[in-house]
Amino acid sequence: MRSLATRLSIALAPVAAATPLPALAQAYQCRVPQSVAVPQVRPDGPVRRVPVTGYTLALSWAPEFCKGRETRAADRAQCSGRGGRFGLVVHGLWPDGRGTWPQWCPTPYRVTPREAARNMCMMPSARLQASEWAKHGACMVRAPGNYFEVTRILWNSLRLPDLDRLSKEPGLTAGMLRDSWVLANPAWPRSAVGVKANERGWLQELRLCYGRDFMPAPCDRRRLGTPDSAPLRIWRGF
Predict the structure, then answer these.
(1) CATH class for the domain made up of 4-224
(2) For labeling, which of 78, 160, 216, 231 is most exposed (least CB within 10 Å)?
(3) Quick check: pTM over 0.70?
(4) Domain limits of the chain?
């Protein structure tokens, strides 16, 4: 039987062919540290095993996340500038359930330094990688390598819009951001693009919604987030 990653690669092949500028191209300045330490993480909630109904690929807007974190040791790889400059990066791939989500499924496996280094240009935080695997990935697949392989396949199938240029558009709204995503990724319905802004209206995250087959699917209200008409601002890092 083919692995989940193999089946996903086959399913997304037409999408990848239509998007010649993959998401990873955004991390062209990324410099992987010579050594990566992976901390141990502790659960922040209960074990919850529920059937998976779909998935969310959360993409964090790094300039907004890094505002005020430039000198924090825990965020050095992403925010100090020494590891490169980032725009959208992967926050995590989350399995979803009906009205809730699975989390913290018991696993004996941990993210290795080698695996973390491999993922740093996609998810530039070893701590985040460890947390996302333990909280979400272990409820999806057997081992961390499988989780990040599936995440990487989805990530590389995307074409990212130029959010730096979009940030300069007068009267920017969440709907205009969704429009720019669909323009860059024509196979995506607008209803599958969630937008999360903070209380001041600055972009924090995109939440891309998938069905169980890993094809784009409408977001529920929780994941869809900011409505189309809401004003939106995008911090460019200066």
Answers:
(1) alpha beta
(2) 231
(3) yes
(4) 4-224
